[in-house]
Here is the input.
Amino acid sequence: MRHIIRFLTLATLLLGFGSIIFSCQEEKSDDGYDIVIYGGTSGGVAAALQASRMKKKVILIEPSARIGGLTTGGLGQTDIGNKQAIGGISREFYEGIKQYYDNPDHWKQQTREEYQDGGQTRTKKGEGAMWTFEPSAALSVYQDFIEKEGVELVTKKKLDRQNGVEKMDGHIVSITMLTGEKYKGQMFIDATYEGDLMAAAGVSYTVGRESNATYKETLNGVHLRITDTTMTGYPARNQFNHNFVPGVDPYIVQGDPNSGLLPHINPDGPGRHGAGDKKVQAYCYRMCLTDDAENRIPFEKPAGYNEQHYELLLRNYEAGEKGFPWINSKMPNRKTDTNNRTGFSTDFIGQNYDYPEASYEQRAEIRELHRQYQKGLMWTLAYHPRMSEHIREEVSRWGTCKDEFARSDGWQEQLYVREARRMIGAHVMTQYNCEGLEVVDDPVGMGAYGMDSHNIQRYVTDEGNVMNEGNVEAKVQAPYPISYRSITPKKNECVNLLVPVCLSASHIAFGSIRMEPVFMVLGQSAATAASLAVDGDLAVQEVNYGELRAILEADGQVLEN
Here is the structure.
């Protein structure tokens, strides 16, 4: 009996030890990742590829069902300015686009010889990159890159923004999704357009426009009509592009202020010239349209269509507008990247102010309101009897594509979030960095596009007419360096987070930086820095810039003119 008891005791100990071993193995398997990337935008994809190439255990987490952000969501007309400023993985992507279209099987609605873009496909003789593409082509290239690199990818996982960031002594320890999954990591990268991880981690940020006084800029803040063109910066502003022709009445009953304002006009006025506010430049869907009858879904009047929402559009043409209300850039296979133009177009001006801080449910509502607005806009342009005949004839030839997005109506899920939160980090990029008047000494990429802001609000002038406010189009003279410190938080706020998309920049500087190729560049640089921080057990603010730069240049990044 004593032997039996001893045997059972030994068996129990062994079972217990086995449980301890199993528990340790489970804990070991849950040690986490070297780098956790939240946000499968173009910048997030580039970051994941670079982290993998640097032999780091990395995971890419995308809140939606589709990776690539705007690059796979309709923005096929690559904006950058001087494309020679684009290197590394970003250029690899555009070279991948060329290789994709070098395959005759990928030309379905037209031949390669029939396709003529607006001058964007090649930027120099013999170039190995292509800069215009269908959303599906971009998605295919990204998926191939991720598969070849073996990057672990999860989709449809949204961060618990209230309680999902575990932080200790300035370090993010783990992030938890609304569905319960927890991801531990040594380093984290927020590559979302909204900056959700950054905000949940307690990092300082801002939303809206700074005043000109904040950083002693001249292109920030509210833009009212100024006749003194000697003021610094004004000749290049073009702040009255994308506006109404003179004399468009803002009231429900024309000439009767007592009848009330038409929808989406700010009744409080625009504010003081140069002052800051919390308003955000307009969003839209970058529509992928086609005129191929077999692939086209005609524009339909949406349920709940309200003609008042488009009365300003109709009045603008009746008052003498001659311009066409879109930029319809040609993409391969008889498709387009269609963007905002004139005073009333695809931008849903003033209807996105709550988006950056909104809940997921509220953001879904805002996205759907934008979609319904654009559906109604396209039907109005194509079929409304008050619309000019030449516009109706042209627009009605087009429709959304059957073969691009998962929705049965041919519309994408990705809203063009031109700007949301922006980090206030170790260095704030400003107008003077963009203009080359102040040059940073720690570049991790180059910006090259003009300082660009879409309109922010619609108001009534002193003369009683409607006007848009917020448009800025100011050129930069040459590509300029973007600081490493602009993608790192302040050290006292977080030491293991990098933010390559919602980076530290003023509103007007962000208007130049916020281009998809640049987000890829900065995503790669962020992952390189994160890998060095893992190797050296360093805070991201302590990474040796000389070592970082050497790796970036070896990997083909462009850091100077």
Summary: The chain has a mean pLDDT of 92. Residues 287 and 449 are 22 Å apart (CA to CA). Residues 2-29 form the longest helix (28 residues).
